[in-house]
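Reviewers of the previous submission asked for a worked example of the structure-prediction workflow described in the proposal, so we include one complete record here. The input consisted solely of the amino acid sequence. No template or homolog information was supplied to the procedure at any stage.
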Amino acid sequence: MFAASHKLIARSVYEILKDQLGITLDCRSLLSGSIAPDINPRMIFLPHTTNATMNIVKTNIDWLKDREIPVTKKDNAAFSYKLGIVIHFLSDYFCKAHNEKRYDNFLHHYIYERKLKIYLEKRMKKCKSLNEFLKPFDWQSGGDIYEFIGNKLQDYNSTERRMSEDIKYSMGVCAAVTLNIASCCISNTVSEILESVA
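From that input alone, the workflow returned the following structure tokens.
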């Protein structure tokens, strides 16, 4: 996906998290993280596929899920940046240009992602509520996050790939995974508070 598409998805997740759980991330760091895999020398040359990058995603998700809700500016920036990286890779996993051999050709890849960016921008303008992206992907926070991602990848791969599916899955999975991570952080924060008063 284009950087603008990754930023749009990250900003939408930011709004959903703020709206649903009252958690305000560091938006600038979240947006920076959401484009980091396309500019960071350690990640830019990796294919943005599950085989090549799922370990990066898992490492970041595990780190995020072990945290409490970030309180300091520094912690919020680090948390938001790592979450942005997760959002980037997850959205690429649900993008036709990262899943079909013919898009290994740079020109074909570029053209598809450019069209996808335009489609996403139009879709966002028509959107009444960001929560509409989340509805088909709602799942209990107690469920295994990696099983959820795997199931959604299977679902996506069994559908006819088109831009509407790319957007539906990218937005929905990124939002659901973020809400799951945030729920874990809330639980960690509550546990820490309870331990400190016991």
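Residues 27 and 47 are 26 Å apart (CA to CA). We consider this example representative of the routine output the project will generate in years two and three.
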